[in-house]
Amino acid sequence: MPPPNTAASLLRLADDQERRLPEDARAALRGVRMQVKTYISELRHAGLDWGLSEATLWWAFDMVSSRSFAATAALPLPHGTIESISAISSPRSNRTGNPSFADASDAPSTPVMLALCVPWACLLNHDPSPNATFKADLGQRTFQVMQRSSGFSFLAPKPLVPGEELCISYGEDLDNVQLAVKYGFCTKGNANDRLPMPPELVLAARGLRQQMLFSAAEHVADDLTKNPADGAEGSLQQQRSRVFAAMASLLDPIVIQKGSSMSIDGAFQAAGASPLRALLAWSANAHACSIERESISHGDDYTSRLASIFPPSAQLPFGSFCVDALREERKFMATILHKILKMYCNVAALWP
Ligand SMILES: C[S@@+](CC[C@H](N)C(=O)[O-])C[C@H]1O[C@@H](n2cnc3c(N)ncnc32)[C@H](O)[C@@H]1O
Description:
Elements: H1 15-18, H2 23-45, H3 54-67, E1 68-74, E2 111-117, E3 125-126, E4 132-137, E5 142-147, E6 149-150, E7 153-157, E8 167-168, H4 176-183, E9 196-197, H5 199-206, H6 210-226, H7 236-251, E10 254-255, H8 265-270, H9 275-287, H10 302-309, H11 320-348
Parallel strand pairs: 3-8, 9-10
Antiparallel strand pairs: 1-2, 4-5, 6-7
Helix pairs in contact: 2-4, 5-9, 6-7, 6-11, 7-11, 9-11
The protein binds S-adenosylmethionine.
């Protein structure tokens, strides 16, 4: 396990870096921090904190949370129970994504969420298209990692190339905010990502005609795969995921609070209350935010990647790499969304 001065998540992100996080990520981070504070005070109250310092308890939470596997089980476990478990991850509704810990005082039939620590399996990195999967048998106390069947062929697993890294999925529905807050990294072209919108734009987006929107998104996806834009490296599949994730921001929006810095009240009014113009103004504004950072590549360890990009002497505030990667992904999505909206205008012959 990494020593106590390291961290996996954004839990202990410095204040100046936290201010640079997108607003919804800050809110998610606040949620996790509140949860950790509650856990720590409960531990102290129950005298189970072993006299450890506040900083050590935060580090311990960080390590367990980012390295454990979550399983639900009814206590006591029947002999031989096989549980399907999730890699460390969280339900989508819970943006904090932290498993609660088994409480022995729970009634025997009440399902509880267990945090399983599996020392070697906690070395497995996340891949949105993983080549490995896992299964736990809580009754037998076994945990198996298996090669994942490829494509439609369940009988013919994809052969592993010697030396190929085994990766699992930490959760198929995790967006970049959840990944960043909980694990300290995010992935390019995350199909679960959404751009959060102020409520007045959600209304504007509802007025768009879905068929024309899909058609515009198809045009942009074709265009992007033929002429990749700056920062668009990645597989064709990743490019398409980004386009449709950007579009899904309009159809399945994350609504941010009114009055936040992302609200475009002014732009909306200046745009003469035309919903489409307001959406265009907002997406242009969102992708104009400046990012000057090396792009993130998945697969290797966050800490060692940091060390390879920045010389050891560089005093890089913890988490800044992830904050930048998250902002860069958001910026790229906003750029794509802007293209989709412009294409929509062409399709609908509405744009002057
Ligand atoms: C369960 S551990 C995986 C093992 C870890 N790489 C190690 O060396 O100990 C989770 C941590 O691994 C890193 N990680 C896992 N998947 C990653 C990915 N796809 N890209 C970047 N970092 C990743 C993150 O630092 C995350 O908090």
